[in-house]
Automatic annotation (TrEMBL), chain A:
The lineage of its organism: Bacteria, Pseudomonadati, Pseudomonadota, Alphaproteobacteria, Hyphomicrobiales. Pfam families: BPD_transp_1, BPD_transp_1_N. It comes from Ensifer adhaerens. Belongs to the binding-protein-dependent transport system permease family. Residues 94-291 form the ABC transmembrane type-1 domain. SUPFAM superfamilies: MetI-like (SSF161098). It is found in: Cell membrane. This is ABC transporter permease. CDD domains: TM_PBP2 (cd06261). It is a multi-pass membrane protein. Keywords: Cell membrane, Membrane, Plasmid, Transmembrane, Transmembrane helix, Transport.
From TrEMBL, chain B:
The keyword Membrane does not apply. GO terms for molecular function: ATP binding. It comes from Ensifer adhaerens. Belongs to the ABC transporter superfamily. This is ABC transporter ATP-binding protein. Keywords: ATP-binding, Nucleotide-binding, Plasmid, Transport.
TrEMBL record, chain C:
This is ABC transporter permease. InterPro entries: BP-dependent_transpt_permease, MetI-like, MetI-like_sf. Its main location: membrane. GO terms for cellular component: plasma membrane. Residues 95-284 form the ABC transmembrane type-1 domain. It comes from Ensifer adhaerens (Sinorhizobium morelense). Keywords: Cell membrane, Membrane, Peptide transport, Plasmid, Protein transport, Transmembrane, Transmembrane helix, Transport. CDD domains: TM_PBP2 (cd06261). It comes from the Bacteria. It is found in: Cell membrane. One of its GO terms (biological process) is peptide transport. It is a multi-pass membrane protein. Belongs to the binding-protein-dependent transport system permease family. The chain crosses the membrane at residues 29-51, 74-93, 100-124, 144-168, 208-229, 262-283.
Length: 304, 539, 307, 478
């Protein structure tokens, strides 16, 4: 187990470095930040000076060497736009994103597993049809629809909730609800599919022969066997939340890492992009590690 | 007639399939009283499992359908009962031991958990359930029960899993126990213990037992009455003695006549160059040593029977010889070349020559393939064996040889009975025309008439094509009829190795002797005598 | 015992296609879905040549015309967009591009992802480690960044867009497949196949893949929606498909600002996406059952009852 | 009354650096609120450059400018404001230790500040700068102690000081008791940031904010709270004259008359937007009322094209219009409509939408080698009241966004920049007419309007400057 984690950590570190190298060079191919930072009327000298000041005039390899040197000492550089350490900017935003992702995914996973399982239990029944309809619409509706409509209904017309922002607990309700919908739809479907198979297995018969109630049969006997694809997909959805829920952050004014990343990419604020990718990648690597451990935890047959 | 514990009246069950309606059970009726043991004998695929599943309400409906009949438990019809109440009956009042323990145990929970669940479901508190589970595992003879509680089903041997099932079924001391082939995977000594356990419980609690088996010895040992089924129909009923001594129906007669263990024992030819030469094979699972250095030789066309305690490493040996598990050390020379060091490409060529029939037929058949696809896959893989045009014909041929029909070709594994699946697995192994077949309890789920037919087939192949067999079995009479050499295993060791005659007539080791002594005789009278003697010895 | 002759009422097994067709008839939802998809497919093929001109004809005076105006021609029934172009015609014309991008991206990512997943689950720990870490990398590479980079360097085209979207979706398939393979390869029938000498390829594709496939199809159908919407987000940021090309996603993103004033601009393309996803999903759920021998009775029984 | 207010903006200020205050997202928060300038341009009435931290100014003999500074002014850190601060502020902008944006207004000019006494400072410019007092309205004053590098906590002399800044969430300005001028009614301003226009509108509606200077035209439906204002942005198509067929003036004229500008008003462009005849909006010095919008004349366009074609101009070459997605509201639709109108008269037009960084590469020099005929759709902002901030960049041979080179244009720009008073206005007018009518330099489209939503409890009318400056002291509370 420890050995497994250590091996994994080494491999992850290598791929993390690879990722950063890739992003470093690729992102620098996408244009000159000077042109974006300075107004279009800025003179060529000003642009040159900007590049000089931020070391963008040096050959790419020199820049890379310097970056690596700094990173090794824990310095991820300054944000071009914000004139403050890129890592600080990212960590600030990531905290919000992390909370949003964790809360949302917890709710989603719980709800989707229950709904999907029940739907599978009576596949083809009314509940199944209804939940399929809802989940599919949820999975394919543009999220800004829901966001804007939710604001119009709950904030403007009913005045129950604030439109946007981050102050109180109430502020979290709309963003989380909007984020909830799509992963919920997807996971319900995956759970349902996987559970249909599990529920027709022989061991479910055994449980029925033991007189076990439907509840435990679904949620204890079948579910755990059906969980492998489910947690994989939960992981995938969580990863996309960790990478930032751009729409929700934009509309609800949530200062998360998604919008930060887009803005930094569009503005070619490389240091922030790199730091953001580093932080989210770390989170995602860690999550994948947890998922892989969960596989083994869920199914003793795949423990090595 | 409300005084019967269980009464099945006019029960019919049918299944819908793509190719039409299968009438699995047709208008059968029988009854069972408290403390009584009723054996259902019958051809494999005759509807034994289905009819007993109907009692437990475990038939998938649809595609199954109970088209007529009623099932009365203490005079109350179980069929129209609402699910809520059924649950109180299942497990507590009626318990079931399934035919196919591997697939019927939940792979992701420890066996301890699964046994405890049977108890807690019906209201036992957790602490009590825990101690009870330990007691039950001990009772069914699982070695190291305390540690075993925390093991998962795949970590057990076939026989051990079956005992776990038994423990689970007995947990709540039900009024009625339905035991579907409860001892197919048990060696005779353990089988005797388990049967004794059933009897003891019967004495203590007045439990009634409905036992489905094809082993006439088991019937003779514990049953009071027998019903015989064939092709979904109940063809004969009566006390054990009546039916054995004076069978009425031709099928019953055939069945009794087919009881193994009466033929000539083989005399193996003089030993020449062995095809397979196994030296000092060892295997451990964690700290547990499953194989402790086995060595033996196998001649071409020879049958090596492997008998021995459940959990002694028989299946492990088979798996290792086929490189499904890697051994820790040792060598196995196949025609002079070491199986254990072969590269995948070399192995591929060899696969053709080495085949296996698995202990657990359900799991070893891909549920998404039809019988035709399952069998013909061999020729897809090794394309030089048979031209495609002939496949259909050959599959039909093989099916008939193992006692199935060509009409089964389009069906899927789940649509067959346990014994039928085993026969499909045998047919599949034969399709490759290998030189060595490892049969892991390959005939244990077959009724004696089919068993005899299959054994005869294997024997013919052995003679005609020089196929060698490693024949893992616990059914001593079958071994006696079929084997050239017998290898007796216990706790990962070979305790005795010799020709059939040597082993059966002059066993050297205590364990072998105990094994032989524990064998059951199909004749109820003989068995009654054995029993009396045994009881006397015990007291 | 006269009954002894045959224990089954055997009818000749119908051909695969007929059987599938019958099972499709048995599931009304799936049947509707199939018909709808067929319809969409036909539209995708003939749409651009059929209504191409109508869909681009602007009329600023008739901008944002309301839907359900039965007086005008049928192409106006869904109303008009901000340039007065009939929405229905635009949706029809956009079908081709939309399906090309979505189907292309989903098919590509599903194929590559599944293949890598099978390999990772079945080969040596080293290969597994390499593939899985690669998946980690892709997974943590924000899709938008990939999009900006690829489209910036290679230029924006339908093919590149498809490529970008495909890359970002690979890890789901990969990880799902691998997780399932880990479990399935321990099953006895896989070992039985090995004993028969089946090559890894055969075991993976003939024995393991069919078990994983239903889950993957479910994922893929849902990804269809995902891809169409992601493409819309990219358009909005100026790195996706851009006018005058049209896709449903682009229509949604163009209608975005009118959501509270002229809802129909983004509603209809959104509905098209929802219906397509839903149909695909219904069909995949049907397929899951139709291809699973243990579940198939659900459809076969119904067919009988109905027929 | 008085009290705190909340303002919701579209874009967060990523930096509150005074010398970057000419950037609109930063300026809107700190310009004249926290950081003040020596002079200030009056945009509400027609008073031109007004005193702020400088009480008065005059031109010296040697044509340098002398500014007399206000006394008794204190920075928010308590230090006193004097001429050294002004010099430092200016030097800081010119320093190469940072990339202050305001420096761009001094491109090509060398300015030397000399402290005369504590409250008098001279600026000597080479070449002579007649509009130096106007330029000084762009130089924010920081205390002498301010480091040359960017700071995150602006210190200024303005009526407010920064009291809270939670990046991503809010910026709070609180009014200062020791401010030199009149005490504003707004005691505290909280700035919030929402990228979505309909959310901004909703926030004012629900009372979560009091003021949103920019909402979408579509949301501006409530006459009691929603106002439109000319926002100094001009949308135009920059033509690259270097490539055939755009090097032919008939073709450029055809482009101009082929577009039905009027049809956009009230449809894709707000009703109240103005059709442009110059790159600068009307109140700018020298704006020429005699220049007339090109008439919509598709037949004329066709004829022009035919003429050109007859002279061997390859008018069939596909022309690419490059636009930036989300550059301004409805940009895609407007460009699609323009494309349709151009194709109507026989142009072959391709549309290309790009993101901001790529757009910049097409818009500014150096242009790519081997390019085809290109037109870049862009939006230009000049709220400074003088065309010099636009003309050089957009039309001079050396201008970074200029698509042509014309000696007369160069000459006019040079002369106008050096001129003062009416002469200056006249020269600019002449240039505007020449560029529009004779050179047909580009396709000028609209002077855009913005929409703001102001809570009914406030009294505030946004102006052309609101884009870059939002003076809290101008907001009154009812
Ligand atoms: N789901 C099903 N679909 C179609 N036929 C089925 C299905 N389940 C069982 N059958 C058929 O019903 C018959 C009875 O099966 P059952 O399992 O009761 O046999 P059995 O008597 O227990 O045999 P064995 O001793 O081999 O276990 C068999 O012929 C089998 O093919
Ligand atoms: N994967 C495993 N992990 C741990 N222990 C295992 C595993 N597989 C088998 N064992 C143990 O190895 C021993 C030998 O098992 P094996 O299946 O070879 O027995 P067997 O002789 O075939 O018994 P049976 O007759 O009951 O099938 C058993 O005690 C079993 O518990
Ligand atoms: Mg059976
Ligand atoms: Mg075994």
């Amino acid at each position: 187990m420890l050995k497994f984690v250590r091996k994994r950590a080494v491999a992850s570190l290598i791929s993390l470095v690879g990722l950063l190298v890739m992003v470093f060079f690729l992102s620098r191919l996408t244009g000159d930040p000077a042109a974006l930072f300075l107004p279009v009327e800025a003179s060529a000298e000003m642009k040159a000076q900007f590049r000089e000041l931020h070391g963008l005039n040096d050959p790419m390899l020199v820049q890379f060497g310097r970056y690596v040197g700094d990173v090794v000492t824990g310095d991820f550089g300054e944000s071009l736009r914000k004139a403050r350490p890129a890592l600080d900017v990212v960590l600030e935003a990531f905290t919000w994103t992390l909370w949003l992702a964790v809360i949302t995914m917890t709710l989603v996973a719980g709800a989707a597993i229950v709904v999907g399982s029940l739907a599978a239990f009576r596949a083809g029944g009314f509940f199944d049809r209804l939940s399929s309809l809802i989940s599919l619409v949820g999975a394919s509706v543009p999220d800004f629809w829901i966001a804007i409509v939710a604001i119009v209904v709950f904030s403007v017309n009913l005045a129950w909730l604030p439109t946007s922002g981050t102050g109180s607990l109430l502020h979290w309700i709309l963003p989380i609800s909007v984020l909830f919908i799509r992963p919920f739809g997807i996971i319900v479907q995956v759970v349902r599919g996987s559970m249909i198979g599990a529920l027709s297995s022989a061991y479910v018969k055994t449980a029925r022969a033991k007189g076990v109630k439907s509840g435990p049969i679904i949620f204890v006997h079948a579910l755990r066997n059906a969980m492998l694809p489910v947690i994989t997909v939960i992981g995938d959805q969580a990863a996309s939340l960790l990478n930032g829920a751009v729409i929700v952050e934009t509309i609800f004014g949530f200062p998360g890492v998604g919008k930060l990343m887009i803005d930094s990419i569009l503005q070619r604020d490389f240091n922030v992009v790199l730091a953001a990718i580093l932080v989210t990648a770390l989170a995602i690597f860690l999550m994948n590690l947890l998922i892989d451990l969960a596989y083994a935890l869920l199914d003793p047959r795949i423990r090595h | 007639m409300a005084d019967h514990l269980l009464e099945v009246r006019d029960l019919s069950v049918e299944f819908h399939t793509a190719v039409g309606v299968v009438k699995a059970v047709r208008n059968i009726s029988y009854h069972l009283d408290r403390g009584e043991t009723l054996a259902i004998l019958g051809e494999s695929g005759s509807g034994k499992s289905v009819s007993s599943s109907a009692i437990m309400n475990l038939i998938d409906m649809p595609p199954g359908r109970i088209s007529s009949g009623e099932i009365l438990l203490d005079g109350v019809d179980l069929l129209p009962m609402p699910a809520q109440e059924r649950r109180k009956v299942n497990g507590r009042r009626i318990a079931m031991i399934f035919q196919d323990p591997l697939s019927h145990l939940n792979p992701v929970y420890t066996v301890g958990w699964q046994i405890r669940e049977a108890l807690t479901t019906h209201g036992t508190d957790a602490a009590k359930a825990a101690s009870e589970a330990l007691r039950l595992l001990t009772r069914v003879g699982i070695p190291d029960p305390e540690r075993s509680l925390d093991k998962y089903p795949h970590e057990f041997s076939g026989g051990q899993r079956q005992r776990v099932m038994i423990a689970m079924a007995l947990a709540l001391r039900p009024d009625l126990l339905i035991a579907d082939e409860p001892t197919t995977a048990l060696d005779v000594t353990v089988q005797a213990e388990v049967l004794a356990l059933l009897e003891e419980l019967q004495r203590e609690t007045g439990m009634a037992v409905l036992i489905i088996t094809h082993d006439l010895g088991v019937v003779a040992e514990i049953a009071d009455r027998v019903v015989v089924m064939e092709k979904g129909v109940l063809v004969e009923a009566g006390t054990v003695r009546e039916v054995y001594k004076n069978p009425q129906h031709p099928y019953t007669k055939k069945l009794i006549a087919a009881a193994p263990g009466k033929g000539e024992m083989h005399v193996p030819a003089a030993r020449a160059e062995p095809v397979l030469s196994v030296r000092d094979v060892r295997k451990r699972y964690g700290s547990f040593e499953a194989l402790k250095g086995l060595s033996f030789d196998l001649m071409p066309g020879e049958t090596m029977a492997v008998v021995g305690e459940s959990g002694s490493g028989k299946s492990t040996l088979a798996r290792i010889l086929l490189r499904l598990d890697e051994p820790d050390s040792g060598s196995a020379l196949w025609k002079g070349r070491d199986l254990f060091t072969m590269s995948p490409t070399e192995l591929y060529k060899l696969r053709r020559d080495l085949q296996m029939v698995f202990q657990d037929p359900t799991q070893s058949l891909n549920p998404r393939m039809t019988v035709y696809q399952l069998i013909s896959e061999a020729w897809v893989i090794h394309s030089d064996i048979l031209p495609k045009a002939k496949w259909r014909e050959r599959v039909a041929d093989l099916l008939v040889q193992v006692g199935l029909g060509p009409e089964h070709m389009g069906r899927y594994p789940h649509q067959f009975s346990g014994g039928q699946r085993q026969r499909i697995a045998i047919a599949r192994a034969l399709a490759l025309e290998p030189q060595l077949i490892i049969c892991d309890e390959a005939v244990s789920a077959l009724d004696v008439s089919v068993q005899a037919q299959v054994i005869a087939l294997l024997d013919r192949l052995r003679k005609e094509m020089g196929i060698a067999f490693i024949f893992i079995a616990h059914d001593l009479p079958v071994v006696r009829d079929f084997a050239d050499h017998v290898m007796v295993m216990q706790k990962g060791n070979i305790v005795e190795l010799g020709t059939v005659r040597e082993v059966f007539d002059a066993p050297q080791q205590d364990y072998t002797r105990a094994l032989l002594a524990a064998g059951l005789d199909p004749d109820p009278d003989v068995q009654a005598a054995h029993r009396a003697a045994r009881l006397q010895r015990a007291s | 015992m006269t009954l002894q002759t045959a224990d089954t009422v055997v009818t000749e097994e119908p051909r695969f296609a007929t059987r599938m067709f019958r099972m499709l008839l048995a599931d009304k939802f799936a049947l509707c879905a199939a018909i709808f998809l067929l319809f969409v497919l036909i539209i995708a093929i003939i749409g651009p040549t059929w209504l191409g001109d109508l869909a681009t004809k602007q009329n600023l005076r008739g901008r944002n015309a309301v839907p359900f105006d039965w007086e005008r021609g049928w192409v106006w029934w869904m109303g008009a967009d901000a340039l007065g172009r009939p929405l229905l015609a635009r949706i029809i014309v956009a079908t081709q591009n939309t399906l090309m991008v979505a189907a292309g991206a989903v098919a590509l990512s599903a194929t590559v992802g599944t293949f890598l997943g099978l390999v990772a689950g079945f080969s040596s720990p080293r290969v597994n480690q390499i593939i899985m870490r690669l998946a980690d990398v892709i997974m943590s590479f924000p899709s938008l960044l990939i999009a900006v980079i690829v489209l910036y360097i290679l230029g924006s085209s339908i093919l590149n867009l498809m490529l970008v979207l495909a890359i970002t979706r690979i890890p789901v398939y990969l990880r799902t497949t691998r997780a399932e393979v880990l479990e399935i390869r321990e099953r006895m029938f896989v070992q039985a196949a090995r004993v028969m000498g089946a090559s890894s390829k055969r075991i993976l594709f003939r024995h393991i893949l069919p078990v994983v496939l239903p889950t993957l199809t479910t994922l893929a159908t849902l990804d269809f929606a995902y891809v169409m919407l992601a493409e819309s987000a990219l358009s909005f940021l100026g790195i996706g498909i851009q006018p005058p090309e049209i896709t449903w996603g682009l229509m949604i993103s163009q209608g975005r600002q009118y959501l509270t004033n002229a809802w129909w601009l983004s509603f209809w393309p959104g509905l098209a996406i929802i219906l397509t996803t839903m149909s695909l999903n219904l069909l995949s759920n049907w397929l899951r059952i139709a291809l699973d021998p243990v579940q198939r009775w659900r459809l076969e029984m119904k067919g009988r009852k109905n027929g | 009354g008085s009290g705190p207010i909340k303002i919701v903006l579209a874009e967060e200020a990523d930096l509150l650096e005074p010398c970057m205050a000419t950037r609109s997202n930063i300026g809107r928060v700190i310009m004249q609120n926290v950081s003040e300038t020596l002079t200030e341009l009056d945009v509400r009435s027609d008073k031109g450059v007004m005193p702020r931290l400088a009480e008065k100014w005059e031109q010296n003999e040697d044509s340098s400018w002398r500014f007399h500074l206000r006394k008794g002014v204190k920075f928010s850190d308590g230090t006193t404001f004097d001429a050294k601060d002004v010099k430092h502020s200016f030097d800081r902008i010119m320093s190469d230790k940072n990339t202050c944006e305001s420096r761009r207004y001094f491109g090509g000019i060398t300015v030397t500040p000399t402290v005369v006494d504590d409250y008098t400072i001279d600026f000597k410019a080479d070449p002579v700068q007649p509009i130096l007092p106007l330029l000084m309205s762009l130089v924010t004053i920081v205390p002498e102690e301010t480091p040359l590098e960017f700071v995150r906590e602006p210190v200024g002399t303005g009526p407010y000081k920064l009291t809270n800044w939670t990046p991503g969430q809010q910026i709070v300005l609180t009014s200062r008791d020791d401010y030199w001028g009149a005490k504003p009614e707004v005691t505290e301003a909280t700035y919030l940031f929402r990228a979505d226009p309909s959310v901004r509108a909703a926030m004012v509606q629900t009372g979560e904010a009091d003021l949103s200077p920019s909402i979408s035209q579509l949301d501006a439906t409530n006459p009691a709270t929603d106002f439109s204002y000319l926002d100094s942005e001009t949308v135009y198509l920059r033509i690259d004259h270097n490539i055939e067929p755009l090097n032919d003036v008939r073709v450029r004229r055809a482009l101009n008359v082929a577009i039905d500008r009027q049809a956009f008003l009230g449809t894709l462009v707000p009703e109240s937007a103005l059709l442009a005849t110059a790159i600068v909006p009307p109140p700018t010095l020298g704006w020429n009322p005699d220049v007339k919008v090109f008439p919509y004349d598709p037949e004329g366009a066709k004829k022009l094209l035919e003429e050109a074609k007859a002279d061997g101009v390859k008018v069939d070459t596909p022309i690419t219009i490059i636009a930036r997605s989300a550059n301004f509201p409805n940009v895609t639709e407007i460009m699609e409509a323009i494309q349709a109108q151009l194709e109507e008269v026989g142009f072959k037009v391709e549309l290309k939408f790009v993101e901001v960084a790529e757009h910049e590469q097409y818009y500014s020099k150096p242009f790519k080698q081997g390019r085809g005929p290109q037109i870049v759709a862009a939006m230009h902002d000049n709220s400074k009241g003088d065309p010099s901030f636009s003309m050089f960049f957009k039309y001079a041979t050396e201008g970074t966004q200029s698509g042509f080179s014309d000696p007369k244009v160069d000459d006019l720009i040079k002369r106008a920049s050096a001129a003062v008073g009416d002469e200056r206005a006249k020269l600019w007018s002449e240039l505007i007419a020449y560029v529009h009518d004779d050179v047909v330099a580009d396709v000028l489209l609209f002077h855009m309007v913005g929409f703001s939503r102001v809570s009914e409890r406030l009294e505030f009318k946004p102006t052309m400057a609101t884009n870059g400056t939002l003076q809290l002291s101008e907001i009154k509370i009812k």
